[in-house]
Amino acid sequence: MIKAGVIGSTGYAGQQLVWFLNNHPDVKINFLSSHSYSGVSFSKIYGNYSKSIESICVDIKEAESKLSEIDILFIALPHGKSFNLVKKALNLGVKVIDLGADFRLKDPDIYKQWYALDHQAINLLPKSIYGLPELNRKIIKESNLIANPGCYPTASILALTPLLKSNIIDPFSIIIDAKSGVSGAGRSLNTSILYGECNESIKAYSVSSHRHTPEIEQVLSQINSENISLLFTPHLVPMNRGILTTCYGNLVKDISQEELYKIYSSFYKDESFVRVIEEIPETKWVKGSNFCDIAIRVDERTKKVIIVSAIDNLIKGAAGQAVQNMNIMFNLDENKGLDLLSMFP
Amino acid sequence: MIKAGVIGSTGYAGQQLVWFLNNHPDVKINFLSSHSYSGVSFSKIYGNYSKSIESICVDIKEAESKLSEIDILFIALPHGKSFNLVKKALNLGVKVIDLGADFRLKDPDIYKQWYALDHQAINLLPKSIYGLPELNRKIIKESNLIANPGCYPTASILALTPLLKSNIIDPFSIIIDAKSGVSGAGRSLNTSILYGECNESIKAYSVSSHRHTPEIEQVLSQINSENISLLFTPHLVPMNRGILTTCYGNLVKDISQEELYKIYSSFYKDESFVRVIEEIPETKWVKGSNFCDIAIRVDERTKKVIIVSAIDNLIKGAAGQAVQNMNIMFNLDENKGLDLLSMFP
Amino acid sequence: MIKAGVIGSTGYAGQQLVWFLNNHPDVKINFLSSHSYSGVSFSKIYGNYSKSIESICVDIKEAESKLSEIDILFIALPHGKSFNLVKKALNLGVKVIDLGADFRLKDPDIYKQWYALDHQAINLLPKSIYGLPELNRKIIKESNLIANPGCYPTASILALTPLLKSNIIDPFSIIIDAKSGVSGAGRSLNTSILYGECNESIKAYSVSSHRHTPEIEQVLSQINSENISLLFTPHLVPMNRGILTTCYGNLVKDISQEELYKIYSSFYKDESFVRVIEEIPETKWVKGSNFCDIAIRVDERTKKVIIVSAIDNLIKGAAGQAVQNMNIMFNLDENKGLDLLSMFP
Amino acid sequence: MIKAGVIGSTGYAGQQLVWFLNNHPDVKINFLSSHSYSGVSFSKIYGNYSKSIESICVDIKEAESKLSEIDILFIALPHGKSFNLVKKALNLGVKVIDLGADFRLKDPDIYKQWYALDHQAINLLPKSIYGLPELNRKIIKESNLIANPGCYPTASILALTPLLKSNIIDPFSIIIDAKSGVSGAGRSLNTSILYGECNESIKAYSVSSHRHTPEIEQVLSQINSENISLLFTPHLVPMNRGILTTCYGNLVKDISQEELYKIYSSFYKDESFVRVIEEIPETKWVKGSNFCDIAIRVDERTKKVIIVSAIDNLIKGAAGQAVQNMNIMFNLDENKGLDLLSMFP
């Protein structure tokens, strides 16, 4: 059994991770840590775990004292909070999967520019691996420190990678118009995520300034061999879960929709969790699952291509992908504990 | 492996059943039958099954020709449609679980009164077992024909049974005020379940005339040893899933809330799927699971007791309970394939 | 022009009141006061007022300094906060409509019992009028201090008054099962009203302990001539607005549904804002309007009557009723500025 | 008083129009016509009109017989259904506002190409005026036949017109990513707009093939003096009302966000219903009103401009704009009967 600890277990992403770890046949949860709810039973915070996970959340200090008892540490904290924890865990030989943003960007200057914070573990950056299995499976297996991708970047990168690998679009024409359910904003107290404020409305936010922009650019630039600048616009949609990205690019060669489908199907043919489908994705078909659905349309009138992808932001966009990475790191079947279809409606 | 056939697989309850059968380690689906979508791939109708259940839905005729190949037949049809199918299946030695209403009421006159239809398999009524495992586990095990309970009756009966067993309330004072998500109304084309008609509104419906009334009365009357008439009022709530019942009764003896909790906890102490909890239930904590959560409040000012119960109408209220019944009938662990917690949010 | 001031203008009820005052042909808003947003433009807080109400919210001190400039003061504060304000305003000859709870209960002991607070303006209680125009129109006209009814009490009392006036039900059998949209919980930061916590779920809350219980009892007891204890259970429904009450009572005489309809239609025949209708009410038909819709069902099997009523909790349940009271106090047409139908969907 | 008739009064747009006409001080509704509900009282179909609009819907034949009694005919029918009606009405000297698509596209070949239908009133096309008051106020005043704009085109054209007038963007770089509430899909029975199918999900649809594309292109091409091809992608969002468009274009000159704001503010300075605002628009601030909110962002990294606009699809995107056009045609104040702010939440 893999012994796991979870820091930040009572946020939405952390709690989703607990769900999957609890459901995983090869994992035993050692501790659940929470800043806001230390000393409280996990099932008092989230009633779905009633009679099932009655253990008491520990504070960060107690969590640190238990690091030597575990094999893997999951961290689901706001950015800037994981530096010391990661160092301590790695020093003790504990593998780390960080669901936060601190180890995703390779360049500490870009980190500082977008997160307004000095990076405090620069020497670890070369060792951290961007945990998108579809791109980095081999190096994830060898790594002790995984930077679990952001939700928007997961959906965006999976949508765009085959296009960029094939040099089919102008890399400077990329626009990603993304739409997310409200759980993506977390569970912190904030007027903007009150029921009455979100329900029955849609808005764009962080236009041209969202922190996932450099993360997407970094990964796509590696694929493209040239640095890419792109435009990323997130929107808030009145639903609990799900991200839909609608990605646009200018075609630089004549290519049919059918040919593009072949490229995508071939690129993802061995992937358990990417489904290249004919119908335009809807978030409802992936909600509650680790899948990423992708469809392709070519607009011959404007010589543009449209790629639409859908994920569950808390699963393939966070906790599910973290478990997928753990499975890889521990040589388990990659889809162990993750083989659930979306439950509809 | 248990070989299963599903009639009515493309309604919401049927589809939910397919989800659980597909997820069950001991079941192999032999055929999926659909009136509206015969000849269509299941995953074209419900995109969550993309790349997973690509089999083609058969029509009822083809389904009947395959009855001899299966061990169990699940029927999820509107009332009045299952009579012949049940006869044929039983004659071939196939066990039957009917998720519809045709075999729940023991008295064909009451059936006719509420469903405006002559019962067409009266001789089977004595053999059919009301498939609520918490009450009828032993006889379910011996039966070949299970009448799977209605969604409202499941939540209502589980809420009220310990009270009636203990002769604590006036059985003629019972009022059940129930609230259901929209999936309970099925997937048939009907203006009243269009998005714009349901969203942002709540209504009562079928006031004093809902067909689940006699079903609840029948089961509670058996417990009470005297025939009970009660008032049942369903409401439609703008959410996909979930039933909350708020049940009221007049206390006939002085009893504290604590004592009532002891009675309930004791009554359900060996049940996997009933959770007697302190907090008032919320449907979100059971959504996606087979649990029924129950809490108790005594109002000393009015000498009334309030029992609140919550289930997922498509799971404990339909497909999950059907699988639970199947597990019992086939001597499997009762919670096999059903041991999922609600995924939140 | 009536010069009006609003204290607590940036909560949901306060803001709804501003909407109606702004829309009223005979009212000029003198000041908007806010604890949380003093110094901020009203339209920065609520974007619907962009280019329309750009005035800056004042703090309570500035509001008090302007009392002498106004004809009427509306107060939309949490309970316990309005005592001094009301005294000051009345002393200056300013009429007051308090949308909060502080002047609704006539008995300061009951106030203390349910609100856990000593009443601090006991001498004003005899002068305050419960502002339900359908019952108290005449004395509202003469009053300077209106206790604007609670949302649940408005819907409940309008539903039950004709029954009690006619001595048709056992007054001790009354159960009110009420369902409210989330705006009823206000706009304060509270995890329980985050989008992810309310959406896709229904719950009961404050079972047998909600503070609107004694308010309903007080008014119905006056009608009944004997003190009534009743059971009131509120529920939280995933929608922005609307209250539906399902009220139950035991009939003490043989009476048909048709006769009851005659009693209700007659009782409310001169009312602009109460609609006695055949169809069971749905909150969507009153949302955005000052109407209360009421329907009646008799269940002959159990000798019970069910009254269903629907209001918009922020309008007939708060701001609309406040404006209706103002119209009465200032001898205006009672429906002035309130004659809007619900906009659907 | 203006005597008005409404054809197609029981669809969502038609019904919204009835709401505004009923609310308009200078309009008297002469007849309401409905294909699906002829012979039924309007308030039986839409309960918000209970006790208010009890008149019986007439069929098309009776409606035609009443054409001579009215001053203006509003038509809210699916495309292809209004040709004869328009001819008859115009021949009788009745002004016509067609909320459908039949008279929007000037080129019958383009109409045929996108609507798969031969245009059957080609001679009327030169006389029909595209009823976007902000662009065509003067010729609307002189016209007898108004083609009321589509919902998406209204939001898109208002967002993009000042940019194109100023030659600031590459007209061939335009991408419009639009999001609509479900009422935009109408009230016809269709599985895809059932509650369970729309709730808790977002999807793109009609990607690169939506019929509003040529309508937007036609109007923007007139502004641009060169024919524009653009990419338009609509999405379905789980909310009743509202359209948000996120419009992208490549800047062809160095220009700051501030300068763009000046251009927009100047362009719309005399408009009652267009609000150029600092904050990114949210549909909740315009829902229930005739406003179009617009904000501008410049992304200096990619040299792109993002314009976000929000409208209520049933009001500024349909019925409100129709009334605005009527006001212009009859020399009334343009905002008469339309001066309502959005009611929140």
UniProtKB/TrEMBL annotation, chains A, B, C, D:
Q: Which SMART domains match?
A: Semialdhyde_dh
- Tell me if Ligase is a UniProt keyword of this record: no
Annotated Semialdehyde dehydrogenase NAD-binding domain residues: 3-143
Q: Which residues form the active site?
A: 151
Catalytic reaction equation(s) = N-acetyl-L-glutamate 5-semialdehyde + phosphate + NADP(+) = N-acetyl-L-glutamyl 5-phosphate + NADPH + H(+)
Q: In which pathway is this protein known to take part? A: Amino-acid biosynthesis; L-arginine biosynthesis; N(2)-acetyl-L-ornithine from L-glutamate: step 3/4
- InterPro entries from the UniProt entry: AGPR (IPR050085), AGPR_AS (IPR023013), AGPR_dimerisation_dom (IPR058924), AGPR_type-1 (IPR000706), NAD(P)-bd_dom_sf (IPR036291), Semialdehyde_DH_NAD-bd (IPR000534)
Give a GO molecular function annotation for the protein: N-acetyl-gamma-glutamyl-phosphate reductase activity
What keywords are annotated for this sequence in UniProt? Amino-acid biosynthesis, Arginine biosynthesis, Cytoplasm, NADP, Oxidoreductase
Q: Where in the cell is it found?
A: Cytoplasm
EC number, as in UniProt: 1.2.1.38
User: Which Pfam family would be a valid example here?
Assistant: Semialdhyde_dhC_1
Q: What is its biological role? A: Catalyzes the NADPH-dependent reduction of N-acetyl-5-glutamyl phosphate to yield N-acetyl-L-glutamate 5-semialdehyde.
Similarity field = Belongs to the NAGSA dehydrogenase family. Type 1 subfamily.
Q: What HAMAP family does the record tag this protein with?
A: ArgC_type1
Q: What is this protein called?
A: N-acetyl-gamma-glutamyl-phosphate reductase
This protein's species is Tepidibacter hydrothermalis
